[in-house]
Amino acid sequence: MPLTQYSYLFIIDDDIEDQEIFIEAVKEVSKDIQCSSSSSGEDALHSLQRSDKLPDLIFLDLNMPKLNGKQVLKEIKKVPALKDIPVIMYSTSFAPRDIEEVRQLGAAHHLLKPSRFNDLCSALDSILQKQWR
After folding, report:
1. How many domains does the chain contain in total?
2. What pLDDT tens digit does each residue of the chain (133 aa) get?
3. How many other CB atoms are found less than 10 A from the CB of residue 2?
4. What's the gap between Cα 133 and its chain centre?
5. Is residue 2 situated within a structural domain?
6. Which domain, by its residues, includes 76?
7. Fewer Cβ close by (within 10 Å): the C or N end of the chain?
8. pTM for the model
């Protein structure tokens, strides 16, 4: 696999199993990329704002309880230290209006959660080859 410009990813997803699969796929694509995760929008915002090391990319689940992905995206874009980090919305489904809304809110991209592990690896490999900033 080609080298990537990204060394640290952050996944925000209320489904722990989806987090684990995502992290495994990242390791499959590149052993050099670190990955952190959070299970809620609230925890993610708290941890990102207090972190010394910010991620190169944030993957954000659209459908979460309490703060959903759109709300978390809005909050990320309000924080000066976080607003320039590319956010990739990550979900099992996107209505066309959701895609348009997250784009208007500042999402860099949207990724439909693949049902197969190899498809997720391929999608991540493709995403990690692009310059998002």
Report:
1. 1
2. 445 689 999 999 999 999 999 999 999 999 999 999 999 999 999 999 999 899 999 999 999 999 999 999 999 999 999 999 999 999 988 899 999 999 999 999 999 999 999 999 999 999 999 998 7
3. 8
4. 14
5. no
6. 8-128
7. C
8. 0.95
Assigned token pair, 87: 């956010």
Residues 6+ apart with CB under 8 A from 114: 120, 122, 123
Q: What is the 3-state secondary structure (H, E, C) of the chain?
A: CCCCCCCEEEEECCCHHHHHHHHHHHHHHCCCCEEEEECCHHHHHHHHHHCCCCCCEEEEECCCCCCCHHHHHHHHHHCCCCCCCCEEEEECCCCHHHHHHHHHHCCCEEEECCCCHHHHHHHHHHHHCCCCC
Residues 6+ positions from 61 with CB-CB distance below 8 Å:
12, 13, 14, 15, 18, 69, 89, 90, 91
Residues paired with residue 111 on neighbouring β-strands, in sequence order: 90
Domain contains 15: yes
Euclidean distance between the first and the last CA atom of the chain, given in angstroms as a whole number: 22
